[in-house]
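Example record

The entry below shows one chain as it appears in the dataset: sequence first, then structure tokens.
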Amino acid sequence: MTENIPEQALLSLYEFNLIVKEALSLTFPSRYLIKAETASINIDAKGHCYMELIEKDDTGIKAQMSSRIWATTWNYVSKTFTSATGQPLTKGMKILVEATLNFHERFGMSLIIQAIDPSYTLGEMAMAKRQIIERLTKEGLIDKNKSVPFPIVPLRIAVLSSKTAAGYEDFVKHLRGNPYGYAFSVTLFETAVQGDAVESTMLRALSLCRAEDFDVVVITRGGGGASDLSCFDNYAVARAIALFPIPVISGIGHERDKTVIDETAHTTIKTPTAAAAFIIERVKRFEDIIDFGGQRLLKSVETLCHDASGRLFLLSKAVEAAVAAGVMRHRFMFEHYAKGISSASPKLLEKHGERLNAALAAAGHLDPISILKRGFSITSVNGKTLRSVEGVSAGIHLTTYLSDGSIESEAMEIIQKGGVQDETEI
């Protein structure tokens, strides 16, 4: 292959790269506007920025090139971008760069970036946000969490935030400093509030919240620019919020455009402090309802007592009149009967006196002494009066009672009607 080629005709790799470099410089002499996505960003010790730019489609990465921003340019570009978007340039952003093609004989081909247009990045984020909202709307998820009933007394609160975020501190301070003395229970589930970790940490925190018993979930942050809040324009997080079984309050600290999670949250509040005030007001509203109900109940009881007192007074007067009339009626009847008894008493006493005397006379005739005086006697054996000779034998001791004394004797002979039973000499 090289047998007939002179040595001076052969090119070294270095010489070939120089030719390529010159050809490229002649072919691509000016700057170009190039849109791409940042795959990585690194700053070296000298302040130079090295970025890997890519372009993707549904199948994956279809183009890739390294790029550099020299330290003096990077210092200006980074400040301008952060000021316009509210956050530093990070990987995963879609950017529009002004760059020239550079070919280095050792390091190969790359882009040298002179400027980055922040408005393009903002526009790309707005488009992505709009597409996510349209997807959630088509799936019927935009208003799903809003349909969850809000608790009457939201005292148990889960907070998704960074523990160092100013918004979280403001939320807890305002909540616990409420002037009504409400005892709120606040549990922090720490998440990222900026950058690529927002999605994974938010989804994990929401999953943990499901396993516990809370009244509401509050997402706080503490403000930021539109681009700074783009991490909340996330389909997976917004979908998880939409399907969450309890109300989610978004209070990430902005007053202009809503993020996607604002669209799917039950309630959106502009700041963490305002979110705390909203919860306090809900509890106060319940307390006011109870107080109002108690006052109405007290007034109703007072009215009932007053009405009952009036009816009782009228009833007591009616009873008093009825009793008085009854007393008068019975008094008249008593006096009437008393007069009748008074007039009938002497005759009744005389009549009953005669009956009593006749009874006494009859009783006198039956007196044993009177009977004995008429010539009768009573014989007894051992204190028992004899009414028959049956069972009496000769020799038994007898006592005979007369009207003026008694006789002790001994039976000599027992004579029954019809013959002699026994004989005994005294």
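Notes for this example: The domain at 7-116 is CATH 2.40.50.140 (OB fold (Dihydrolipoamide Acetyltransferase, E2P)). DSSP finds nine helices and 16 strands in the chain.
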